[in-house]
Amino acid sequence: MQLFAARSRMHTSSKGFTLIEVLVAFTIASIMLVALLQGMGRGLRSIDRADDRQILVNAAQNQMARLGRQIELRPGIESGEGDGYRWRVSISDPPPDLASDQIAGGQLRLLMIEISVSDGSGAEFHLQTMRLVESEVP
Length: 138
Fold this sequence. Notes:
By secondary structure, the protein is an alpha+beta fold. The chain is 43% helix and 28% strand. Strands 1-2-3-4 form a 4-stranded antiparallel sheet. The chain starts with a helix and ends with a strand.
């Protein structure tokens, strides 16, 4: 009886982890590490997509800046390529409900402008605006 009592005291007083406890801890840590790495990967992909999108936005803004200088402000379509992207500027008269013959006594008219930019991967960005320009004198 004393032998059994000594063993049970020894077993309960021992400090440390069992093999099962260690394996469970490693499994939980591995699952958490995999989830963390997947989250970081998604974050990096999102940053990369945002960078690509920003390039298209900058290209559209560059075309907007060319309006009235290098691109004539009159109805029509102009397109081109540059720095790995394609652009298209479409200028049109507004729909009849936005008729602009009343603006500044007919001296100004409204134009609708749409700028589209795309890259080789199929990503696109569209920018729409309106501009007031001097009316053409007949």
